[in-house]
Amino acid sequence: MCNITAPQFQDADKARAYLEALRWPDGPFCPHCGSTKKPMKLRGEKCRPGLYKCSEYQCRKQFTVTVGTVFERSRVPLNKWLLTVYLMASSKKGISAHQIHRTIGVTYKTAWFMCHRIREAMTESPDGLLGSGGGTVEADETYWGTSKRKRKNARGYQHKMKIVSLVERGGKKRSFHTQHVSAATLAPILRQNISTDANLMTDEHGAYLQIGKEFASHDIVTHSKGEYVRSNAHTNTAECGFSVFKRGLVGTFHHIGEQCKRHRKPAVICRILK
């Protein structure tokens, strides 16, 4: 079990040795050409610690264990990078960049950059369809408040941010930020991410009724009638995820926006979901 007093979190040299053992269990190899020929370790006053040179004649490039990782070309000590990764991975409700900057002793701007780079590295590309082989997938949506004024004659939650989550029981979860919660927006998401032989579980939202016919089975729980579990039919797994997610927004991040106004980047809420 790991903790914040571990040697790799306190010393940059020990952090490098820890990362080398983790990334190169069978010995160092060149990340540029992929050669497994034993590289030359460079030593001397002008050489950075942990610097190697590829032994392949056609390559001969220099590298360290951080090449090809999120730690590459960073002036932040490697032990602080590893500590930040540990804090972000072990915090159930997330950890803010302000908390990181106070904890590891860097500026807020540096902590913000580190958090975003680590989240990007944690992002997984969708691999296959959820529920393949007859598995069960829950689909549900939630809404998060916004400071924007509710437009005149707007109904329900239309002025709020909308998140749709697909959860495979015993498997992975995929979340999406959508502009609208309707059959037109949800149907493509379900078709692209859920196998047709999966068993779909949803609430009584009308957007799921037509698309639900395209899967092996579609069970509905009627929340409006006080029904939340009926035998194996429920969306509690997805709702538990929303609960933890919202606790993180209230207690950790406090304020989020749909889009960075300065850089016009994708929704911040999706960054947190990653």
Structure in words:
This protein is an alpha/beta fold. The protein folds into two domains: 7-122, no CATH class; 136-148 and 157-273, 2-Layer Sandwich (Nucleotidyltransferase, domain 5). 30% of the residues lie in helices and 14% in strands. The protein is built from seven helices and eight strands, in the order H-E-E-E-H-H-H-E-E-E-H-E-E-H-H. The strands form two sheets. The protein has a five-stranded mixed beta sheet with strand order 6-5-4-7-8, sandwiched between helices. Strands 1-2-3 form a three-stranded antiparallel beta sheet, with no helix packed on it. A hairpin with an 8-residue loop joins strand 2 and strand 3 (62-63). Helix 1 (12-23) crosses helix 2. It is elongated.
**CATH homologous superfamily classification of the largest domain:** Ribonuclease H-like superfamily/Ribonuclease H
Residue ranges: pLDDT <50 for 5 or more in a row?
A: 260-267
Number of strands: 8
| Share of helix, binned | 25-40%
Taking the alpha carbons of the first and last residues, their distance comes to 24 Å
Short key terms for the protein model shown above:
274 residues, alpha/beta, Nucleotidyltransferase, domain 5, 2 domains, five-stranded mixed beta sheet, three-stranded antiparallel beta sheet, 7 helices, 30% helix
Set out the fold topology.
Layout: H1 12-23, E1 40-41, E2 52-53, E3 62-63, H2 78-90, H3 97-104, H4 108-122, E4 136-144, E5 161-168, E6 173-178, H5 183-193, E7 199-203, E8 217-221, H6 236-253, H7 268-273
Parallel strand pairs: 4-7, 7-8
Antiparallel strand pairs: 1-2, 2-3, 4-5, 5-6
Helix pairs in contact: 1-2, 3-4
